[in-house]
Design brief:
By secondary structure, the protein is an alpha/beta fold. The chain has 17 helices and 16 strands. The strands form 3 sheets. It has an 8-stranded mixed sheet, with helices on both faces. The chain has a 6-stranded antiparallel barrel with strand order 1-2-5-4-3-6. It has a two-stranded antiparallel ribbon with strand order 7-9. Helix 6 packs across helix 7, helix 8 runs parallel beside helix 9 and helix 13 runs antiparallel to helix 14. The longest helix is centred in the middle third of the chain and has 20 residues. It is elongated, with a radius of gyration of 28 Å.
Length: 501
């Protein structure tokens, strides 16, 4: 009994002399290390998304909490680490630097500059994981975010703070639409963030050079986590971009963020989850893959005046396989967003670019995201195109068509030609409005199809020169007044007569 008593007294003295916080809460050890994921033991109070530091100074991110171990992910080089190395808790969640000084820069997946320019000293830190603004703080959609793309601004309008999905097969022009939207924000006070997830470095480099050439890089931040980057960087990069976008929103400014693309983001998260030994579900994705994207896209919002009035608009991209929109990730993101722009491979290959399938594309805010003049002139455009596609498919099997049907088909062909648009050539809404007015009201029906695009160019040229007063009036009024309509008819008739000679 005396021996037992002495042992108990020694244990009690050791407990009283030890620093419990240091021994159990702050110091952990690596149990297992592989592929950028470490399983750590000796933990009692870790937080999700907390930063921990290893002996070599490498920062890691806590992403998995279980009853006796913690899963942490690499945020740097882990080649010098081994089993049983010590891990120290930092006591704070993952945060990134935000501020205006990040504009015009290219960052990696955790917000560090990689463009070879000067070091950025952040003026403010923002958490990567953040709860989305509540319903009370939000404002309804009533301001358009113009893309400069005729088919979108007229038929699938996007409003500020909307979450509009761009979806389609590989090589159908999804990124082109996103980049054209960035180019069109020049001078409109909208700050842009482009997040490239799992893309080729050569593609990102071309995009950066294009933005620089067009003068758009000065109001844009590019974040890249390329295909050869660790999965954790591909996983965390869209949240880093969102934190930067929220900085501008909180300042009462308007921001646009593009996620290119969330399919690769889901694949990266699946890889991380399987390394953490989480049980796989449908298509081997973890059960929380829906939450993965919903917590990201819900952070896009427009705050009401009491909270600053800023906005963050999100354009996520999704790549489909064989146009299958019913696959797991596409259906998830479609259910989260406020509409989708569907790009069709057959339309793209036939030369109809942008290859937007009007039948499958939808915007759940419709006219609320359009100026009054655009809403007025484009009201019938969607129906005209739908009618044309139905009649065109029917005409393949009919030997003879009545005059009315033939006329509608010919008009539809010219409308399709009118909506074609070159890459990196966004068009302001006041020019779009005049062109669509001409197309809907039978002004171009007598033109040969090969003269529709020259007619469009001539129309724009006149609006910049001899009819500059009309352009200024539309910009000022933004509605189809009687005076504007009269001047539009005069301009269209003048351009029609010149192009018909």
């Amino acid at each position: 009994m005396q021996v037992v008593k002495e042992i108990l007294e020694k244990i009690e003295k050791d407990i009283q002399a030890s620093d419990l916080n240091d021994s159990f809460s702050k110091k952990w050890e690596i149990l297992e290390l592989k592929d950028g994921v470490a399983i750590v033991v000796g933990l009692d109070d870790a937080m999700f998304s907390e930063i921990v530091e290893f002996e070599n100074g490498t920062k890691w991110l806590v992403l998995d909490l279980s009853s006796d171990t913690v899963g942490v992910l690499i945020l740097g080089d882990y080649s010098g680490l081994s089993q049983w190395d010590t891990v120290t808790a930092m006591g704070r969640v993952l945060s990134v630097g935000v501020g205006d000084n990040y504009l015009g820069r290219v960052l990696n997946g955790i917000g560090e500059p990689i463009d070879g320019l000067w070091e950025i000293k952040p003026t403010k830190l923002a958490p990567v994981e953040k709860i989305a603004p509540g319903v009370i703080t939000r404002h309804m959609v009533d301001t358009p975010l113009e893309t400069g793309i005729k088919a979108i601004d007229s038929m699938v309008p996007i409003g500020r703070w909307q979450r509009e999905l761009i979806i389609g097969n590989r090589q159908t022009g999804k990124t082109t639409i996103a980049i054209d939207t960035i180019l069109h924000q020049k001078g409109k006070g909208v700050y842009c963030i482009y997040v490239a997830i799992g893309q080729k470095e050569s593609k990102v480099r071309r995009i950066v050079e294009l933005l620089r050439e067009k003068g758009a890089l000065e109001y844009t931040i590019v974040i890249t986590a390329p295909a050869n980057a660790p999965s954790v960087l591909q996983y965390i990069s869209p949240y880093v971009g969102c934190a930067l976008g929220e900085y501008f929103m909180d300042q009462g400014k308007d921001a646009l963020i593009i996620y290119d693309d969330l399919s690769k983001h889901a694949v990266a998260y699946r890889e991380v989850s399987l390394l953490l030994r989480r049980p796989p579900g449908r298509e081997a994705y973890p059960g929380d893959v829906f939450y993965l994207h919903s917590k990201l896209l819900e952070r896009a919002a427009r705050l009401n005046k009491d909270y600053g009035g800023g906005s963050l608009t999100a354009l996520p991209l999704i790549e489909t396989l064989d146009s299958d929109v019913s696959a797991y990730i596409p259906t998830n993101v479609i259910s989260i967003t406020d509409g989708q722009i569907f790009l069709e491979t057959e339309l793209f290959n036939s030369g109809n670019r942008p290859a937007i399938d009007v039948g499958l594309s939808v915007s759940r805010v419709w006219g609320n995201a359009q100026t009054k003049i655009m809403k007025k002139v484009s009201g019938k455009l969607r129906l005209e195109l739908a009618s044309f596609r139905e009649l065109a498919s029917f005409a393949q099997f009919a030997s003879e068509l009545d005059v009315s049907t033939q006329r509608k088909i010919e008009k539809g062909k010219r409308l399709v030609e009118m909506l074609k648009q070159a890459n990196n050539d966004p068009i302001p809404f006041y020019k779009q409005a005049v062109l669509i007015y001409a197309g809907i009201n039978w002004y171009i029906d007598e033109l040969a199809i090969d003269k529709v695009l020259p007619f469009e160019k001539l129309l724009y040229q006149k609006m910049d020169t001899t009819h500059k007063a009309l352009s200024d009036l539309i910009l000022k009024e933004q509605a189809l007044t009687e005076d504007i309509e009269t001047k539009m008819k005069t301009l269209i008739q003048e351009a029609y007569e010149e192009i018909s000679l």
